[in-house]
Amino acid sequence: MPDPRLMPRDVMEYDVLIVGAGPAGLSCAIRLKQLAKEKNRELSVCVIEKGSEVGAHLMSGAVFEPRALNELFPDWRERGCPLTVPVTEDRFMFLTKTRAWRLPTPPPMHNKGNYIISLGYFAKWLATQAETLGVEIYPGFAAAEILYNEKGSVRGVATSDVGIAKNGEPTARFTRGVELEAKQTVFAEGCRGSLTKVLFERYKLRDGVDPQTYGIGIKEIWEVDPAKHQAGHVVHSIGWPMDSRTYGGSWLYHWENNLVSIGFVVGLDYENPYLSPFEEFQRFKHHPMISSLLRGGKRISYGARALSEGGFQSIPKLLFPGGLLIGDTAGFLNVPKIKGNHLAMKSGMIAAESLFDYFSQNSTAPEVIDYPERLQKSWLWKELRAVRNIRPSFHGGLLMGLIYSAIDNVLLRGNAPWTFRNHADYKQLKSAASSRKIDYPKPDGVFSFDRLSSVFLSNTNHDEDQPPHLKLRNPSVAIDTNLAIYDAPETRYCPAAVYEIVRAADGSNPRLVINAQNCVHCKTCDIKDPTQNIDWVVPEGGGGPNYQGM
Predict the structure, then answer these.
(1) Which H or E run contains 249?
(2) Which tens digit of pLDDT belongs to each residue from 177-198?
(3) Are residues 353 and 377 in the same domain?
(4) How many folded domains does the chain comprise?
(5) What is the pTM of this model?
(6) Are residues 356 and 253 in the same domain?
(7) Which of 41, 85, 284, 535 is buried most, with the most CB atoms less than 10 Å from its CB?
(8) Of residues 133, 2, 13, 42, the one with CA closest to residue 360
(9) Which domain holds residue 468?
Protein backbone atom coordinates (compact mmCIF):
# COMPACT_ATOMS: atom_id res chain seq x y z
CA MET A 1 0.00 0.00 0.00
CA PRO A 2 1.44 3.42 -0.93
CA ASP A 3 2.34 5.81 1.87
CA PRO A 4 -0.72 8.09 2.30
CA ARG A 5 1.57 10.98 3.21
CA LEU A 6 2.84 10.95 -0.39
CA MET A 7 -0.62 11.15 -1.93
CA PRO A 8 -1.34 14.36 -3.85
CA ARG A 9 -3.28 16.97 -1.90
CA ASP A 10 -6.57 18.40 -3.01
CA VAL A 11 -6.20 21.90 -4.43
CA MET A 12 -8.55 24.85 -3.91
CA GLU A 13 -7.98 28.03 -5.90
CA TYR A 14 -8.91 31.63 -5.04
CA ASP A 15 -8.09 35.16 -6.05
CA VAL A 16 -7.17 36.06 -2.45
CA LEU A 17 -6.31 33.72 0.41
CA ILE A 18 -6.19 35.17 3.94
CA VAL A 19 -4.41 33.24 6.70
CA GLY A 20 -6.03 34.09 10.03
CA ALA A 21 -9.60 35.04 11.00
CA GLY A 22 -8.84 37.85 13.43
CA PRO A 23 -9.94 41.47 13.03
CA ALA A 24 -7.26 42.15 10.39
CA GLY A 25 -8.01 39.15 8.18
CA LEU A 26 -11.78 39.44 8.40
CA SER A 27 -11.74 43.19 7.74
CA CYS A 28 -9.59 42.59 4.67
CA ALA A 29 -12.01 39.95 3.38
CA ILE A 30 -15.06 42.12 4.05
CA ARG A 31 -13.59 45.18 2.34
CA LEU A 32 -12.60 43.13 -0.71
CA LYS A 33 -16.13 41.83 -1.09
CA GLN A 34 -17.64 45.28 -0.49
CA LEU A 35 -15.54 46.70 -3.32
CA ALA A 36 -16.35 43.78 -5.59
CA LYS A 37 -20.05 44.32 -4.98
CA GLU A 38 -19.78 48.07 -5.58
CA LYS A 39 -17.91 47.55 -8.87
CA ASN A 40 -19.94 44.50 -9.95
CA ARG A 41 -16.85 42.30 -10.13
CA GLU A 42 -16.35 38.67 -9.19
CA LEU A 43 -13.57 38.10 -6.67
CA SER A 44 -13.10 34.85 -4.75
CA VAL A 45 -11.88 35.29 -1.18
CA CYS A 46 -11.06 32.57 1.35
CA VAL A 47 -10.10 32.88 5.03
CA ILE A 48 -8.60 29.98 6.94
CA GLU A 49 -8.28 29.83 10.72
CA LYS A 50 -6.31 27.37 12.87
CA GLY A 51 -8.73 27.63 15.80
CA SER A 52 -11.65 25.24 16.08
CA GLU A 53 -13.97 28.17 15.35
CA VAL A 54 -13.60 31.86 14.64
CA GLY A 55 -12.59 33.53 17.89
CA ALA A 56 -11.32 30.36 19.58
CA HIS A 57 -7.72 31.64 19.65
CA LEU A 58 -8.46 35.35 20.05
CA MET A 59 -7.71 37.09 23.31
CA SER A 60 -7.53 40.79 24.08
CA GLY A 61 -8.20 43.05 27.07
CA ALA A 62 -10.18 44.62 25.36
CA VAL A 63 -11.13 48.24 25.14
CA PHE A 64 -12.03 48.79 21.50
CA GLU A 65 -11.69 51.99 19.51
CA PRO A 66 -14.36 51.94 16.76
CA ARG A 67 -12.62 54.26 14.29
CA ALA A 68 -11.91 51.60 11.64
CA LEU A 69 -15.24 49.88 12.29
CA ASN A 70 -17.04 53.17 11.59
CA GLU A 71 -15.35 53.21 8.19
CA LEU A 72 -16.02 49.55 7.43
CA PHE A 73 -19.65 49.47 8.59
CA PRO A 74 -21.09 52.93 9.35
CA ASP A 75 -24.31 51.14 10.31
CA TRP A 76 -22.69 48.63 12.69
CA ARG A 77 -25.21 49.37 15.44
CA GLU A 78 -28.12 48.44 13.19
CA ARG A 79 -26.26 45.27 12.20
CA GLY A 80 -26.18 44.03 15.79
CA CYS A 81 -22.47 44.46 16.43
CA PRO A 82 -21.64 43.31 19.99
CA LEU A 83 -20.34 46.68 21.19
CA THR A 84 -22.73 47.21 24.07
CA VAL A 85 -20.65 48.57 26.97
CA PRO A 86 -19.28 52.09 26.42
CA VAL A 87 -16.43 53.22 28.66
CA THR A 88 -17.79 55.46 31.42
CA GLU A 89 -14.66 56.22 33.47
CA ASP A 90 -10.86 55.94 33.16
CA ARG A 91 -8.50 55.55 36.09
CA PHE A 92 -4.71 55.27 36.05
CA MET A 93 -3.12 54.00 39.25
CA PHE A 94 0.36 53.60 40.71
CA LEU A 95 0.55 50.63 43.08
CA THR A 96 2.78 49.90 46.01
CA LYS A 97 2.42 46.57 47.80
CA THR A 98 -0.46 47.82 49.95
CA ARG A 99 -1.52 51.19 48.52
CA ALA A 100 -2.98 52.57 45.29
CA TRP A 101 -2.34 56.15 44.17
CA ARG A 102 -4.38 57.74 41.43
CA LEU A 103 -2.33 59.53 38.75
CA PRO A 104 -3.46 61.72 35.85
CA THR A 105 -4.56 59.50 32.99
CA PRO A 106 -2.06 59.81 30.09
CA PRO A 107 -3.68 61.29 26.95
CA PRO A 108 -3.31 58.09 24.85
CA MET A 109 -5.25 56.15 27.51
CA HIS A 110 -8.37 58.33 27.44
CA ASN A 111 -11.19 56.04 26.35
CA LYS A 112 -14.16 58.33 25.75
CA GLY A 113 -16.09 56.89 22.81
CA ASN A 114 -14.56 53.43 23.18
CA TYR A 115 -16.17 50.14 24.21
CA ILE A 116 -15.34 47.20 26.45
CA ILE A 117 -15.73 44.06 24.33
CA SER A 118 -14.94 40.40 23.89
CA LEU A 119 -12.67 40.21 20.85
CA GLY A 120 -13.83 36.64 20.22
CA TYR A 121 -17.49 37.65 20.05
CA PHE A 122 -16.61 40.63 17.87
CA ALA A 123 -14.70 38.40 15.43
CA LYS A 124 -17.62 36.00 15.21
CA TRP A 125 -19.84 38.94 14.27
CA LEU A 126 -17.31 40.05 11.64
CA ALA A 127 -17.23 36.51 10.27
CA THR A 128 -21.02 36.54 9.88
CA GLN A 129 -20.80 39.81 7.94
CA ALA A 130 -18.05 38.36 5.75
CA GLU A 131 -19.98 35.19 4.96
CA THR A 132 -23.07 37.22 4.06
CA LEU A 133 -20.91 38.96 1.46
CA GLY A 134 -19.71 35.64 0.04
CA VAL A 135 -16.39 35.10 1.82
CA GLU A 136 -15.52 31.43 2.38
CA ILE A 137 -14.26 30.87 5.96
CA TYR A 138 -12.75 27.57 7.09
CA PRO A 139 -11.96 27.23 10.81
CA GLY A 140 -9.90 24.26 11.95
CA PHE A 141 -7.55 24.66 8.95
CA ALA A 142 -4.00 25.17 10.25
CA ALA A 143 -1.68 26.68 7.62
CA ALA A 144 1.47 24.60 8.06
CA GLU A 145 3.49 25.18 4.90
CA ILE A 146 4.04 28.01 2.43
CA LEU A 147 3.79 27.01 -1.23
CA TYR A 148 5.96 28.64 -3.89
CA ASN A 149 5.85 28.73 -7.67
CA GLU A 150 8.79 28.10 -9.97
CA LYS A 151 9.79 31.79 -9.84
CA GLY A 152 9.96 31.79 -6.06
CA SER A 153 6.74 33.69 -5.43
CA VAL A 154 4.23 32.57 -2.81
CA ARG A 155 1.35 30.72 -4.47
CA GLY A 156 -0.57 29.86 -1.30
CA VAL A 157 -0.34 27.57 1.70
CA ALA A 158 -0.91 23.94 2.58
CA THR A 159 -2.79 22.89 5.68
CA SER A 160 -1.37 20.34 8.05
CA ASP A 161 -1.98 16.64 7.63
CA VAL A 162 -4.28 15.27 10.33
CA GLY A 163 -3.83 11.90 12.02
CA ILE A 164 -0.03 11.67 12.26
CA ALA A 165 1.16 9.83 15.39
CA LYS A 166 4.00 11.00 17.63
CA ASN A 167 6.31 8.53 15.87
CA GLY A 168 5.59 10.25 12.55
CA GLU A 169 3.51 7.43 11.13
CA PRO A 170 -0.06 7.90 9.81
CA THR A 171 -2.87 6.57 11.99
CA ALA A 172 -6.31 5.24 11.04
CA ARG A 173 -7.71 8.77 11.11
CA PHE A 174 -5.08 10.16 8.73
CA THR A 175 -6.31 12.87 6.36
CA ARG A 176 -4.07 14.59 3.87
CA GLY A 177 -3.81 18.36 4.06
CA VAL A 178 -5.19 20.68 1.41
CA GLU A 179 -3.35 23.09 -0.88
CA LEU A 180 -4.98 26.51 -1.04
CA GLU A 181 -3.65 28.49 -3.97
CA ALA A 182 -4.21 32.18 -4.62
CA LYS A 183 -3.05 34.99 -6.85
CA GLN A 184 -2.24 36.90 -3.64
CA THR A 185 -1.90 35.49 -0.11
CA VAL A 186 -2.48 37.75 2.89
CA PHE A 187 -0.86 36.73 6.16
CA ALA A 188 -2.90 37.82 9.20
CA GLU A 189 -1.55 35.25 11.67
CA GLY A 190 -1.32 37.66 14.59
CA CYS A 191 1.67 38.08 16.85
CA ARG A 192 4.73 35.95 16.00
CA GLY A 193 3.05 34.04 13.17
CA SER A 194 4.70 30.69 12.50
CA LEU A 195 4.63 31.11 8.71
CA THR A 196 5.39 34.81 8.86
CA LYS A 197 8.71 33.88 10.53
CA VAL A 198 9.54 31.88 7.41
CA LEU A 199 8.66 34.81 5.15
CA PHE A 200 10.88 37.12 7.21
CA GLU A 201 13.85 34.83 6.58
CA ARG A 202 13.20 33.91 2.95
CA TYR A 203 12.52 37.43 1.72
CA LYS A 204 14.69 39.36 4.24
CA LEU A 205 11.65 41.37 5.34
CA ARG A 206 13.29 42.49 8.59
CA ASP A 207 16.49 43.80 7.05
CA GLY A 208 17.04 47.44 7.95
CA VAL A 209 14.45 47.63 10.74
CA ASP A 210 14.67 47.16 14.50
CA PRO A 211 13.94 43.76 16.06
CA GLN A 212 10.34 43.26 17.05
CA THR A 213 9.82 43.40 20.81
CA TYR A 214 6.98 41.78 22.72
CA GLY A 215 4.98 41.55 25.90
CA ILE A 216 2.96 38.69 27.32
CA GLY A 217 -0.59 39.42 28.37
CA ILE A 218 -2.24 37.07 30.87
CA LYS A 219 -5.98 37.44 31.34
CA GLU A 220 -8.81 36.10 33.47
CA ILE A 221 -12.52 36.82 33.41
CA TRP A 222 -14.25 36.98 36.77
CA GLU A 223 -17.90 37.13 37.68
CA VAL A 224 -18.01 39.54 40.62
CA ASP A 225 -20.53 40.59 43.24
CA PRO A 226 -23.15 42.77 41.45
CA ALA A 227 -22.77 45.38 44.19
CA LYS A 228 -19.13 45.85 43.14
CA HIS A 229 -19.67 45.86 39.39
CA GLN A 230 -19.57 49.16 37.47
CA ALA A 231 -20.23 48.56 33.77
CA GLY A 232 -17.88 50.65 31.64
CA HIS A 233 -15.34 51.27 34.44
CA VAL A 234 -11.69 51.07 33.23
CA VAL A 235 -8.63 50.92 35.49
CA HIS A 236 -4.98 50.61 34.46
CA SER A 237 -2.04 50.35 36.84
CA ILE A 238 1.75 50.42 36.90
CA GLY A 239 4.15 49.74 39.74
CA TRP A 240 3.84 46.78 42.11
CA PRO A 241 4.49 43.88 41.70
CA MET A 242 7.00 44.88 38.98
CA ASP A 243 10.40 46.17 40.01
CA SER A 244 11.54 49.52 38.64
CA ARG A 245 13.59 47.88 35.85
CA THR A 246 10.81 45.70 34.45
CA TYR A 247 8.10 46.98 32.12
CA GLY A 248 4.62 45.86 33.07
CA GLY A 249 1.16 46.88 34.12
CA SER A 250 -2.41 45.77 34.61
CA TRP A 251 -5.90 46.32 33.31
CA LEU A 252 -9.30 45.98 34.93
CA TYR A 253 -12.34 46.34 32.65
CA HIS A 254 -15.90 46.09 33.95
CA TRP A 255 -17.76 44.43 31.08
CA GLU A 256 -21.41 43.27 31.01
CA ASN A 257 -23.40 40.88 33.23
CA ASN A 258 -21.20 41.44 36.29
CA LEU A 259 -18.14 40.25 34.37
CA VAL A 260 -14.72 41.82 34.81
CA SER A 261 -11.73 41.37 32.51
CA ILE A 262 -8.56 41.44 34.59
CA GLY A 263 -5.07 41.01 33.26
CA PHE A 264 -1.40 41.79 33.44
CA VAL A 265 1.22 42.52 30.77
CA VAL A 266 4.94 41.94 31.28
CA GLY A 267 7.44 43.20 28.71
CA LEU A 268 9.49 40.28 27.42
CA ASP A 269 12.65 42.36 27.60
CA TYR A 270 12.85 41.54 31.32
CA GLU A 271 16.31 40.60 32.65
CA ASN A 272 15.80 38.24 35.59
CA PRO A 273 15.49 34.59 34.48
CA TYR A 274 13.65 33.81 37.72
CA LEU A 275 10.76 36.12 36.85
CA SER A 276 7.48 34.38 36.01
CA PRO A 277 4.83 36.55 34.31
CA PHE A 278 2.14 34.07 35.40
CA GLU A 279 3.19 34.26 39.05
CA GLU A 280 3.45 38.05 38.91
CA PHE A 281 -0.16 38.16 37.76
CA GLN A 282 -1.27 35.81 40.53
CA ARG A 283 0.57 37.91 43.09
CA PHE A 284 -0.98 41.10 41.69
CA LYS A 285 -4.51 39.86 42.47
CA HIS A 286 -3.67 39.89 46.17
CA HIS A 287 -3.28 43.67 46.14
CA PRO A 288 -5.99 45.19 48.40
CA MET A 289 -7.48 47.19 45.51
CA ILE A 290 -7.89 44.03 43.42
CA SER A 291 -8.71 41.46 46.09
CA SER A 292 -11.51 43.64 47.46
CA LEU A 293 -13.17 43.54 44.05
CA LEU A 294 -12.64 39.81 43.48
CA ARG A 295 -13.62 38.64 46.97
CA GLY A 296 -16.81 36.61 46.71
CA GLY A 297 -16.46 36.35 42.94
CA LYS A 298 -15.72 33.43 40.63
CA ARG A 299 -12.96 32.98 38.06
CA ILE A 300 -14.49 31.64 34.85
CA SER A 301 -11.88 32.02 32.08
CA TYR A 302 -8.11 32.13 31.62
CA GLY A 303 -5.79 32.79 28.69
CA ALA A 304 -2.42 34.16 27.62
CA ARG A 305 -1.06 35.74 24.46
CA ALA A 306 2.05 37.55 23.31
CA LEU A 307 1.64 41.00 21.79
CA SER A 308 3.91 43.03 19.53
CA GLU A 309 5.34 46.09 21.30
CA GLY A 310 8.08 47.27 18.93
CA GLY A 311 5.89 49.80 17.17
CA PHE A 312 6.85 52.04 14.27
CA GLN A 313 10.60 51.30 14.14
CA SER A 314 10.00 47.54 14.09
CA ILE A 315 7.55 47.42 11.17
CA PRO A 316 9.02 45.02 8.57
CA LYS A 317 8.80 45.23 4.82
CA LEU A 318 5.13 44.42 4.22
CA LEU A 319 5.33 43.01 0.70
CA PHE A 320 6.86 39.89 -0.82
CA PRO A 321 6.31 38.18 -4.17
CA GLY A 322 2.79 36.77 -4.05
CA GLY A 323 1.46 38.41 -0.90
CA LEU A 324 1.54 40.87 1.97
CA LEU A 325 1.35 41.26 5.76
CA ILE A 326 -1.40 42.89 7.84
CA GLY A 327 -2.41 43.32 11.49
CA ASP A 328 -0.34 42.22 14.45
CA THR A 329 1.67 39.96 12.13
CA ALA A 330 3.18 43.23 10.93
CA GLY A 331 3.34 44.70 14.45
CA PHE A 332 0.51 47.23 14.22
CA LEU A 333 -0.07 47.88 17.92
CA ASN A 334 -0.24 51.21 19.75
CA VAL A 335 1.41 50.37 23.09
CA PRO A 336 0.60 53.64 24.95
CA LYS A 337 -3.06 53.24 23.99
CA ILE A 338 -2.93 49.51 24.81
CA LYS A 339 -4.87 48.96 21.59
CA GLY A 340 -4.25 47.29 18.27
CA ASN A 341 -7.56 45.98 17.00
CA HIS A 342 -8.50 49.23 15.26
CA LEU A 343 -5.08 49.30 13.59
CA ALA A 344 -5.37 45.65 12.58
CA MET A 345 -8.71 46.35 10.95
CA LYS A 346 -7.47 49.46 9.17
CA SER A 347 -4.42 47.67 7.78
CA GLY A 348 -6.68 44.91 6.46
CA MET A 349 -8.99 47.44 4.83
CA ILE A 350 -6.11 49.32 3.18
CA ALA A 351 -4.66 46.02 1.96
CA ALA A 352 -8.06 45.14 0.48
CA GLU A 353 -8.28 48.43 -1.40
CA SER A 354 -4.78 47.92 -2.80
CA LEU A 355 -5.56 44.33 -3.75
CA PHE A 356 -8.80 45.29 -5.45
CA ASP A 357 -7.07 47.90 -7.59
CA TYR A 358 -4.35 45.35 -8.37
CA PHE A 359 -6.95 42.92 -9.73
CA SER A 360 -8.94 45.65 -11.48
CA GLN A 361 -5.81 46.59 -13.42
CA ASN A 362 -5.25 42.91 -14.32
CA SER A 363 -1.76 43.26 -12.92
CA THR A 364 0.67 40.38 -13.24
CA ALA A 365 3.29 42.00 -10.99
CA PRO A 366 4.31 39.76 -8.08
CA GLU A 367 3.79 42.51 -5.46
CA VAL A 368 0.91 44.87 -4.69
CA ILE A 369 3.27 47.81 -4.62
CA ASP A 370 0.89 50.57 -3.53
CA TYR A 371 -0.13 48.88 -0.26
CA PRO A 372 2.74 50.37 1.80
CA GLU A 373 2.24 53.73 0.10
CA ARG A 374 -1.42 53.80 1.08
CA LEU A 375 -0.57 52.81 4.63
CA GLN A 376 1.91 55.64 4.93
CA LYS A 377 -0.78 58.15 3.93
CA SER A 378 -3.30 56.81 6.45
CA TRP A 379 -4.13 57.71 10.05
CA LEU A 380 -2.67 54.32 11.07
CA TRP A 381 0.85 55.38 10.08
CA LYS A 382 0.52 58.79 11.69
CA GLU A 383 -0.73 57.25 14.94
CA LEU A 384 2.10 54.74 15.19
CA ARG A 385 4.80 57.25 14.30
CA ALA A 386 3.62 59.70 16.96
CA VAL A 387 4.06 57.17 19.80
CA ARG A 388 7.18 55.43 18.51
CA ASN A 389 9.41 56.52 21.41
CA ILE A 390 7.10 55.76 24.35
CA ARG A 391 7.68 52.03 24.83
CA PRO A 392 11.47 52.07 24.24
CA SER A 393 11.83 54.95 26.70
CA PHE A 394 11.06 52.43 29.46
CA HIS A 395 14.27 50.51 28.68
CA GLY A 396 15.86 52.94 31.12
CA GLY A 397 13.45 51.97 33.90
CA LEU A 398 10.01 53.01 35.11
CA LEU A 399 10.91 56.52 36.28
CA MET A 400 12.79 57.36 33.09
CA GLY A 401 9.91 56.05 30.97
CA LEU A 402 7.28 58.04 32.85
CA ILE A 403 9.27 61.26 32.63
CA TYR A 404 10.00 60.87 28.93
CA SER A 405 6.41 59.85 28.14
CA ALA A 406 5.11 62.99 29.81
CA ILE A 407 7.52 65.14 27.79
CA ASP A 408 6.71 63.32 24.55
CA ASN A 409 2.93 63.49 25.04
CA VAL A 410 2.64 67.06 26.33
CA LEU A 411 5.56 69.03 24.90
CA LEU A 412 6.75 67.15 21.82
CA ARG A 413 3.37 65.67 20.86
CA GLY A 414 5.09 62.79 19.13
CA ASN A 415 7.21 65.06 16.92
CA ALA A 416 10.63 64.40 18.44
CA PRO A 417 13.39 64.57 15.83
CA TRP A 418 14.85 61.31 17.18
CA THR A 419 13.73 57.69 17.26
CA PHE A 420 14.70 55.35 20.09
CA ARG A 421 15.91 51.90 19.10
CA ASN A 422 14.52 48.48 20.01
CA HIS A 423 16.57 45.44 21.02
CA ALA A 424 15.72 41.76 20.80
CA ASP A 425 13.98 40.44 23.91
CA TYR A 426 15.78 37.11 24.01
CA LYS A 427 19.15 38.85 24.39
CA GLN A 428 18.16 40.64 27.59
CA LEU A 429 18.22 37.75 30.09
CA LYS A 430 21.04 37.78 32.62
CA SER A 431 22.58 34.63 34.00
CA ALA A 432 20.98 32.92 36.97
CA ALA A 433 24.18 33.36 38.96
CA SER A 434 23.95 37.15 38.67
CA SER A 435 20.19 37.34 39.32
CA ARG A 436 17.99 37.40 42.40
CA LYS A 437 15.68 34.45 42.96
CA ILE A 438 12.04 35.40 43.39
CA ASP A 439 10.07 33.61 46.09
CA TYR A 440 6.50 33.46 44.81
CA PRO A 441 3.79 32.54 47.34
CA LYS A 442 1.77 29.39 46.83
CA PRO A 443 -1.67 29.93 45.28
CA ASP A 444 -4.48 30.22 47.80
CA GLY A 445 -7.25 29.00 45.49
CA VAL A 446 -9.23 32.16 46.20
CA PHE A 447 -7.42 34.91 44.30
CA SER A 448 -4.38 33.03 42.96
CA PHE A 449 -4.21 29.65 41.22
CA ASP A 450 -1.76 27.19 39.69
CA ARG A 451 -1.07 26.86 35.99
CA LEU A 452 -2.77 23.54 35.32
CA SER A 453 -6.10 24.60 36.82
CA SER A 454 -5.79 27.80 34.80
CA VAL A 455 -5.13 25.93 31.54
CA PHE A 456 -8.24 23.87 32.26
CA LEU A 457 -10.31 27.07 32.12
CA SER A 458 -8.89 27.88 28.68
CA ASN A 459 -10.53 24.75 27.22
CA THR A 460 -7.19 23.82 25.66
CA ASN A 461 -7.11 20.52 23.82
CA HIS A 462 -4.55 18.80 21.61
CA ASP A 463 -4.60 15.20 20.47
CA GLU A 464 -1.75 13.80 22.54
CA ASP A 465 -0.76 11.30 19.86
CA GLN A 466 0.57 13.85 17.36
CA PRO A 467 4.05 15.19 16.72
CA PRO A 468 4.79 17.97 19.22
CA HIS A 469 4.34 21.44 17.77
CA LEU A 470 7.07 22.80 20.06
CA LYS A 471 10.36 21.75 18.56
CA LEU A 472 13.93 22.06 19.81
CA ARG A 473 16.43 22.92 17.12
CA ASN A 474 19.16 21.31 19.27
CA PRO A 475 17.86 19.19 22.18
CA SER A 476 21.14 19.34 24.11
CA VAL A 477 20.96 23.13 24.41
CA ALA A 478 18.02 22.88 26.84
CA ILE A 479 20.31 21.37 29.49
CA ASP A 480 23.81 22.44 28.47
CA THR A 481 22.91 26.14 28.12
CA ASN A 482 19.41 27.02 29.29
CA LEU A 483 19.60 25.02 32.52
CA ALA A 484 23.29 25.52 33.15
CA ILE A 485 23.36 29.30 32.62
CA TYR A 486 19.77 30.51 33.09
CA ASP A 487 18.31 27.79 35.37
CA ALA A 488 15.72 26.73 32.79
CA PRO A 489 13.73 29.97 32.32
CA GLU A 490 11.26 28.22 30.00
CA THR A 491 9.76 26.59 33.09
CA ARG A 492 8.84 30.09 34.32
CA TYR A 493 8.05 32.24 31.28
CA CYS A 494 5.55 29.70 29.92
CA PRO A 495 2.10 30.45 31.42
CA ALA A 496 0.77 26.93 30.75
CA ALA A 497 3.21 24.48 32.41
CA VAL A 498 4.42 23.20 29.05
CA TYR A 499 8.11 22.98 30.04
CA GLU A 500 9.35 20.87 32.93
CA ILE A 501 12.80 19.78 34.13
CA VAL A 502 12.68 16.17 35.31
CA ARG A 503 15.51 14.50 37.23
CA ALA A 504 16.35 11.07 38.56
CA ALA A 505 15.55 10.29 42.20
CA ASP A 506 19.02 11.40 43.28
CA GLY A 507 18.70 14.71 41.43
CA SER A 508 20.99 13.69 38.58
CA ASN A 509 20.39 13.37 34.83
CA PRO A 510 18.15 16.40 34.26
CA ARG A 511 16.08 16.45 31.08
CA LEU A 512 13.51 18.79 29.59
CA VAL A 513 9.98 17.43 29.19
CA ILE A 514 7.66 19.29 26.83
CA ASN A 515 3.98 18.93 27.72
CA ALA A 516 2.76 20.26 24.37
CA GLN A 517 -0.84 19.32 25.13
CA ASN A 518 -0.98 22.22 27.64
CA CYS A 519 0.06 24.90 25.13
CA VAL A 520 -2.29 27.91 24.87
CA HIS A 521 -0.49 29.19 21.74
CA CYS A 522 0.84 32.34 23.40
CA LYS A 523 4.20 32.04 21.51
CA THR A 524 6.20 33.34 24.50
CA CYS A 525 8.67 30.45 24.35
CA ASP A 526 9.41 31.12 20.69
CA ILE A 527 10.15 34.75 21.57
CA LYS A 528 11.95 34.66 24.93
CA ASP A 529 14.10 31.52 24.70
CA PRO A 530 17.61 32.94 25.24
CA THR A 531 19.19 30.63 22.66
CA GLN A 532 16.30 30.80 20.17
CA ASN A 533 16.27 27.03 20.31
CA ILE A 534 12.47 26.64 20.56
CA ASP A 535 10.49 26.73 17.34
CA TRP A 536 6.69 27.04 17.63
CA VAL A 537 4.86 25.50 14.66
CA VAL A 538 1.17 24.81 14.20
CA PRO A 539 -0.36 21.63 15.63
CA GLU A 540 -3.28 19.91 13.94
CA GLY A 541 -6.02 22.30 12.95
CA GLY A 542 -8.55 22.94 15.69
CA GLY A 543 -6.06 22.26 18.49
CA GLY A 544 -5.20 24.70 21.24
CA PRO A 545 -7.41 26.88 23.41
CA ASN A 546 -11.10 27.31 22.81
CA TYR A 547 -11.68 30.69 24.39
CA GLN A 548 -15.23 31.78 25.10
CA GLY A 549 -15.78 35.50 25.55
CA MET A 550 -12.08 36.40 25.70
Answers:
(1) strand 248-254
(2) 999 999 999 999 999 999 999 9
(3) yes
(4) 3
(5) 0.96
(6) no
(7) 284
(8) 42
(9) 426-536
